[in-house]
Write a structure and sequence with these properties.
276 residues, 44% helix, seven-stranded mixed beta sheet, 10 helices, Spore Coat Polysaccharide Biosynthesis Protein SpsA, Chain A, alpha/beta, single chain
Length: 276
């Protein structure tokens, strides 16, 4: 009996050590992205080669062959984990599901359509850690800026309109809030308020919680397979209503600043201070 318990404890200890060793978790939400999944996974593995990392895909109730493609990859790639929503919940909900299962102290996020380039992840991480060292008290986010967007003229026009709205109403100074690739501290991400479409307002929400927001130039590719899940007019109309919700949140931002726990002092230390 004692031997069994000892083996179990040793096994649990190894699992705990493996989880603690994860440096960064990459979260990828997908819905009907068959054909885009495995190439992107391979690129992420190449970009983070030699690191302790995990990739968490969330299948938001896909109806194509995405599930089969993920199952095949899961059997072949040890760093991969796959979650599946029983009901379609949207991109922000998929990211949140992955976040709550992530084990890395840093979180990377990528769109699952293959337009973001995983090779940019190390530069985003380096920029974040240079501005907010791992041993420091601060937190922040490094977010991509697509210098040469590979989108249709109508989509680019819609993005410019959305950017004008965010700058005007939210004072969002990040040049490309809609860019899907970013890296941030997990502790910060967990504090951000959750709502549908919140992934479009990450710079404003991070700043609301006192985090540093860094812009890093990244590459952007044209979509090769599949179709976009967002219609331009729907995105604009929904975005406007979301902006007013974010305004409400920003006005009620937490104001306590850094929270520091007081060190425990012995009676002798207290008396010494009183005598001084």
């Amino acid at each position: 009996m004692t031997q069994t318990k000892s083996r179990k404890t040793a096994g649990q200890s190894k699992v705990g050590q493996a989880q603690a060793a994860i440096e960064i978790s990459i979260l990828v939400p997908v819905m009907n992205e068959a054909g885009n999944i495995r190439p992107l996974i391979d690129e992420i593995c190449e970009a983070l080669s030699g690191r302790q990392f995990e990739i968490i895909y969330v299948d938001d109730a896909s109806t194509d062959e995405s599930g089969d493609e993920l199952a095949t990859a899961l059997a072949e790639i040890p760093q991969l984990r796959v979650l599946r929503h029983a009901n379609r919940a949207g991109q922000s909900a998929a990211i949140r599901s992955a976040l709550h299962n992530a084990r890395g102290h840093l979180i990377g996020v990528l769109d699952g359509d293959g337009q973001n380039v995983p090779a940019d992840l190390p530069r985003l991480e380096a920029a974040l850690l240079e501005a907010v060292p791992a041993d420091g008290q601060g937190v922040g986010m490094a977010a991509g800026i697509r210098a040469k967007r590979q989108d249709t003229p109508m989509r680019l026009l819609a993005s410019r309109a959305a950017k004008w709205i965010r700058v005007t109403l939210l004072s969002d100074t990040h040049p490309d809030s809609g860019c899907g690739i970013k890296i941030l501290h997990r502790s910060l991400f967990l504090q951000l308020p959750f709502f549908n479409h919140m992934h479009r307002f990450m710079p404003s929400l991070v700043a609301r919680h006192g985090g540093v927001v860094l812009g890093v130039d990244v590459a952007h590719r044209a979509r090769v397979r599949g179709t976009s899940k967002y219609r331009i007019l729907d995105r604009l109309l929904v975005g406007i209503s979301d902006v007013f919700g974010v305004i409400w949140l920003l006005r009620r931002a937490p104001r306590q600043g850094e929270v520091v726990e007081m060190p425990r002092q012995t009676k002798h230390q207290q008396k010494g201070k009183a005598g001084a």
